[in-house]
Structure formats: C-alpha cells, structure tokens
Design goal:
alpha/beta; 7-stranded parallel beta sheet; 6-stranded parallel beta sheet; 13 helices; about 15% strand
Length: about 375
C-alpha cells in the first residue's frame, strides 16, 4: 500500500525526549516500511524515519523560538498532504481536527487515530465529521459518537526497555510525565510523603504549566526525598523506570492511553494508577500493578505492589503492547477500509451501468 502518515509538528519523530504520539508514529511508520509498504511521513524536518520524509518546517515547532503562530504550520501541513492525496491509497492522520475538513474533499480515504481526550468544544467538530473512520487507542476514549472502526493499543519496542529483576537500592518511587495538573505530579509528591518513600520525578514543563510548576511543585522538591531530574532522554527514562520499585500514575484526567504505564511494566516495574480513562485497560489489577479509587489508596497499595512479580509485568507487555501487535491492528484497519471502498465503488459502478441500460432501453 501507498500510505501517508501525518504526524504532529510540535515534536520531531521520534521525539528526543518527551512525545508519546511522535514515538508511536515513529514505530508505526518504520514497521510499515519494513513490511514492504510505500510510506511517506509528513513531519518536522529534523525527524528520522525509514519512510520518505516530507517536512513542512525544518525542525520541531517547540524547538524553534521564531515560531509565533504554530497553527499556521499545521494548516500548511494539512494542505500539503491533501494536495497530494491522489498519490496515496490511504492517509493516516495523527493530528486530530486539522485533517477532518480536507479529508471530505478527496477520494483517498483518511483514517484518524485519536490520541487525545474529547472536550466539549472538540466534540462538536468531531461529531460534525462523525462518519469518517476513527481509531481509538483505548475503549475508554470513546466518549463521542463517532464511526470507530477499531481500538488499537499503542505499542513499544520491547528491546528498547531492558528488564531489571531487582529494583535499585535504596528503593524509590518513579513519576514520569508532563508537569501539568492533569498528569498529577502534585499527587505523586503527596503519595510519597504519605508513604514515607523517596520519589524521583522526570518530565517537561510546558510554557502554560510554568506557573503551576513554580507554585505547586518546585517548593516541594528538596533533592532528598523528592528529586526532580528534568526532561530526560530515552536512556535516562528507562533507567528511571527500570530501577524504581514502583511507578506512580496519579492522573486527574481521562488519559486516552498512557505510554508510561507500559514502558514501566516492560522493565519489570509495576504501576499504581488512579481509576480514570484507560488505566483499567492497561494495568492488570493485582498482577502488574493496582488500579485505585483515590490517591490515598494508591499510597496504601505500595506494600502490596512490592510483592508483585516483575517478570509477570514484563510478559504482560510482551503479550499485549508491542509494536508488532500495534501494526497488525493498523494494517487490518487499512485493509478493511480499502476493501469497503472497493466494494462501494463496485456497487456504484454496477448501479450506474444498470441505470444506463434502463435509459437506453427506454430510448
């Protein structure tokens, strides 16, 4: 198949540090190329891929201080993709709303992977385009009434996450994620203090979250019990998760998936999360971690989590959340959409021929 992949422009593909969507797009795109597909990746110019790269801007928008109106580049990217639509069998969008309107104007089908949660505002736009084909990354994500063709869980390359049988001493809890209220770093700190544990934290601080970080997080970082590592690269991320006794996932929003959970479990480290969004679909409660109703309960479950088998955590990810399984799911979606399109075109062609035959008889 000739496939176009549309990635967000804010981070490169794959991301150098933070960027869950971009990591997923990278794994998907490269594996599709390995399987013999002709793939074009529309992404920032500093991206690295096995596919043909078409760049709208030379570098990730987040890293370019000269960018004042990022949405203009997103509009430019969408326009570039759909001006070339006839060159592809299918277009796969990972950029949310930017491709919806244009997708209706071309004959090449577009499938949309939904990477975010719905808001009252965004739901109106998606609902207007409800008949287009959508892929959810968890069943919990399906809050809007759309044409969902499949749920495809995110996958990781297991070999990129070495298994660690015994956590590092002295023991610590890990938190990895964007430092924003919805990711819950404030709750991770409270849990560590309640349980009397050391906590190592890593992640980026976006401009919109600077005030939150400075007021609610920074004053609690003492470098001893609560340690902040900054925005780490892949190697440092893996070390943080693999050597932890437990990873905390104390979100405050309906997380659509949460790569951190499977990244942690892949290294052998169990995860304690709050019962919101995809968490119950990703954590095997009582086997690879615990799904809790309150943040206080998360602290209380630490002793039980320490008793979980780290090899079981690893095997759970191997059997459920790999790149191979993810790409199998996406390939099946592509094939279904193209088959349905061929059948629809065949019916239209047959109907047209029948009408022409009837018309000729009457004449």
């Amino acid at each position: 198949m000739k496939i176009a992949q549309i990635a967000p422009l804010w981070e490169r593909v794959p991301p150098s540090t933070y960027g869950g969507i971009e990591l997923v797009v990278s794994h998907l795109t490269d594996e599709l190329v390995r399987r013999g597909h002709d793939v074009t990746l529309f992404a920032s110019g500093d991206s690295q891929t096995l596919a043909r790269l078409q760049a709208t801007h030379p570098r990730a928008l987040r890293l370019d201080p000269n960018i004042k109106e990022g949405m203009m580049y997103e509009m430019l990217q969408a326009s570039e993709v759909y001006q070339q639509a006839e060159e592809f069998d299918i277009i796969h969008s990972h950029v949310g709303m930017w491709s919806l309107a244009l997708a209706n104007m071309v004959s090449t089908p577009t499938v949309h992977t939904l990477h975010g949660a719905f808001t009252n505002d965004s739901s109106k736009v998606f609902t207007l385009h409800r008949t287009q084909p959508y892929i959810s990354i968890s069943d919990a994500q399906r809050k809007a009434d759309l044409n969902y063709v499949s749920t495809v869980y995110n996958g990781i390359k297991i070999q990129d996450y070495p298994f660690v049988a015994e956590p590092k001493e002295p023991p610590y809890l890990a938190f990895l994620g964007r430092f924003s209220p919805e990711k819950g770093p404030q709750h991770a700190i409270a849990i560590a203090k309640q349980a009397g544990w050391r906590l190592k934290m890593a992640g980026k601080v976006d401009v919109v979250d600077v005030e939150f970080f400075e007021k609610e997080i920074a004053p609690l970082i003492d470098g001893k019990q609560i340690e902040y590592l900054g925005e780490v690269d892949h190697a440092a991320k893996v070390q943080l998760l693999a050597n932890a006794s437990i990873t905390l996932f104390p979100i405050t929003w309906r997380e659509p998936f949460g790569l951190v959970m499977i990244e942690s479990m892949a290294t052998g480290t169990p995860v304690i999360g709050i019962n919101m969004g995809s968490v119950p679909e990703v954590i095997a409660h009582g086997k690879t971690g615990f799904v809790c109703q309150t943040y206080e309960e998360m602290a209380d479950m630490i002793p039980a989590a320490l008793e979980l088998n780290r090899q079981t955590c690893r095997e759970y990810v191997e059997n459920r959340f790999t790149v191979t399984q993810m790409v199998d799911g996406y390939e099946a979606v592509y094939e279904k959409i193209l088959k349905d399109r061929t059948q629809k075109n065949g019916l239209i062609h047959a109907l047209r021929n029948s009408l022409e035959s009837i018309a000729s008889v009457k004449l």
